[in-house]
Amino acid sequence: MKAEGLSIKGFQTPLLVQANQFRQCAAPMLQILHEKGREHWMCVFSEHDSCVYVYDSLNAEILTETVENLCRIVPPSQESTVTVRLMNAQRQRNSTDCGIYACDFMERLARGEQVDGVTFDSAQLRPHFISCLRDKKVTPFPVLRVTYAFRKGVLKQIFVDLVCVCHKPWMGELVVECSGCNKYFHPNCLHGTRMHQLITTFLQFPMQCTW
Fold first, then answer.
1. For a FRET experiment, which of 98, 141, 160, 204 has its CA 20 to 30 Å from that of 195?
2. What is the pLDDT of residue 13?
3. Any idea what the CATH number is for the domain that residue 40 is in?
4. Of 106, 91, 92, 88, nearest in space to 33 by CA
5. 10 in Cβ contact with 29 (< 8 Å)
6. CA 74 to CA 72: how far, in whole Å?
7. Structural contact between residues 103 and 132, judged by C-beta atoms closer than 8 angstroms
8. Measured between alpha carbons, how far is 67 from 26 in angstroms, rounded to an integer?
9. Which range marks the domain in which residue 197 is found?
């Protein structure tokens, strides 16, 4: 799909999550993520940098691991909060189809089509995916029906506060506020800077950064 010249960014190898090496991608962005905690695949999509949609065939929860991976991909912006929305996508019927559903969701979103309310033909998903690999061309996955009247689009929504130059979600760890820009920073991320010296040596407040 990346080779087809789509204007959507992302499409990074999910293996990068193991080394925390995802590159930041400005919206619009599509990405398949792998959660190590529950050995699970999902698809994420953003139309703008302050909101990310999660398409998960388990429709369970938005885990901390998912949020941390999203914050590695979403670039810093003027917004200090990222909205993460768990969308109502089709559920898998077993414990092994999460990967193929993540591919289905990605293909449909890349074409500008909605995923919520879509019922894929589960029996034909894997054969279709094999044919796409064989032909080296991604074509629409088989769909049984599209119904928008009886499904709630957003199952859950959370707001993630981002802090520091590392652009990570705040999880209750120690941060200090800059009186110049009113942003919060991890002391360890400021190593070698004037602000870090004030924190570790003099503990003088208020402090001002140069960002």
1. 160
2. 76
3. 3.40.395.10
4. 106
5. yes
6. 6
7. no
8. 17
9. 174-202
